[in-house]
Each structure stands twice: as C-alpha cells, then as structure tokens.
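FORM 12-B: Structure-to-Sequence Request
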C-alpha cells in the first residue's frame, strides 16, 4: 500500500493533487497521475499504456456525503 507524502509528490512530476479547502481546513483531496501498464491483446501482443489513475483520496469526516466535490 502506498501512502501520499510531500516527498513522493514533489519527486514524481506526473502526479497531480487537487485540494478542496475552506477556512484553512482541508475538506478533501484527490491524487491522480499516469501509471504504465502492459496490455495483452488477443494475439498475445503487448502494448504499453499509461492511463490516468486515481492513486489516493481523502474526505474530511465532517463533510462526507455533502456533495462538496460535485461540480
């Protein structure tokens, strides 16, 4: 299991963190980035893909189920 830390974030340039804060309190965040995968097709050929992946997220207990992150 991987945990988000500032050291890991600043040393991995493709990752992005989006933070929702209010009154100097973090309400939540999401961490996304690209991860390399090898995909095997029906002919047993491998292709490297780098989809956008969700790595980590957090929602403060006090604001869960209140649609704070809804756009």
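FORM 12-B RESPONSE
SEQUENCE OUT:
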């Amino acid at each position: 299991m991987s945990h988000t830390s500032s050291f890991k974030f600043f040393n991995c340039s493709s990752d992005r963190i989006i933070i929702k804060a209010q009154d100097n309190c973090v309400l939540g965040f999401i961490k996304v980035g690209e991860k390399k995968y090898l995909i095997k097709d029906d002919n047993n050929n491998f292709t490297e893909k780098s989809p956008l992946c969700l790595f980590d997220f957090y929602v403060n207990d006090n604001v869960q189920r209140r649609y704070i992150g809804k756009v």
